[in-house]
């Protein structure tokens, strides 16, 4: 993750420009900031150090010395430390302080492009060679990072360096001059080998692991099969570009855990696509053909991943419940161009809608999504965050259709955000997603990864705007009888009244439902006084926001609609005037300790 920090008001505008321009899925948040209320962290140095210690890349819009002093106590291993970039408060320059070859140089260049400033790159290899040997292209792996420094030093000094390419290609090094015979060397290989003195080993992403397994196979068995096979064939794990299989295995725990353990993507092909590789299979199986519609999964998937010019380097090998084959491509494999990845469904609560009420995890999920599904108003509330996304919107009342569409899209391998207002798990669509999964058991959804991301609920927003009305025991009740019989709602109202809960009413009034709110009022009045404070919070977090406080005895259906959150205090709730306005709070018992 990337943390953007500023410690002075003058730097806030530049920091916000960077937050808007950086990939939202990678942002830790605008940390250590001064917000609109001019609130700053009391321990800025400690906060920066904690972010660094936890592995976050840091962009500090501040003096370089502040960052240096903050992270200095945590400097231990240059190969493992995250990038640190200092940015001038006016955006004129970006200086990579740490991790130049581990992302800081690229980050500084990106910052400079965004701000129209200058990236002050100081690493010698980048300046003179135009490349960093220990920071190869994406997917490549440096097997022995310590060897990069002496080899780069030899190139900088004009000394001869040998280049050996055993697998893939090294086009990104083509602008450098290499000798046919020299002691320092760069060796590009997909084999696990011992490096010679002054030899840098680079693994290109040219290997595809084709795997198959029985349903419910123990992940440890498949991982063990891969480990043993790579060791037996002396293949470098760093040269693995992807794990591939048939799409029926897109939800298989063993396959997905294998990919995660190797740090590479998992990709899946249809049986029809694997059938095209039949002429190249070394171990076709009639049993597999009858079972899934193609004669080979492991070999077929590996060959499909490496293309027509690729070759099978390890034919199908198997354990009790799993199979593995390895193929090599002539060039680096780009997993993004292969088959289908496991889809993701983020069920996202966006709070009242405004960006400042949205938690960073929700913003990151929306940024990572290719498709947005939701009620049209909720998608509109995303503003610029929805730019570049495919929108799938529907009207109120089509909740099941929206949830089903989101699952369908995720089942197709897409990253989907199912957008809900407030909190996704409070009178929203999270429960509907799981209910559909249980009831319909659609096999097309099996491979989707699901994550429910919380949001600021309407009751929290209303409470915050009005003071502290739910600081003691409270309950929420929806007054809509479309899904819950009124008899059930009435029982809950009587229980809440008897227990003297603060009650938060969702869906209080609609065009067709005009009497439920007043009936609920009468039930609560049986146990609490007519002057009990009621908060009427409408259009929270939006330009049309209004907050009213009235007495329970004065509450009518005309006071609310479907955009209103109604919070009824308990018999203990209080109305007080302070700072030129009225507030509501519910005592929790602290007064006894304050006497």
TrEMBL record:
Keyword line: Cobalamin biosynthesis, Methyltransferase, S-adenosyl-L-methionine, Transferase
Gene Ontology MF term list: precorrin-3B C17-methyltransferase activity
Domain Cobalamin synthesis G N-terminal stretches: 47-126
UniProt signal peptide: none
GO biological-process terms attached to the record: methylation
Protein's pathway: Cofactor biosynthesis; adenosylcobalamin biosynthesis
Pfam families hit by this protein: CbiG_C (PF01890), CbiG_N (PF11760), TP_methylase (PF00590)
Domain Tetrapyrrole methylase stretches: 345-554
EC number: 2.1.1.131
CobE/GbiG C-terminal domain location: 207-327
Alphabetized NCBIfam families for the sequence: cobJ_cbiH
Record's protein name: Precorrin-3B C(17)-methyltransferase
Organism: Magnetospirillum sulfuroxidans
Recorded name of the encoding gene: cobJ
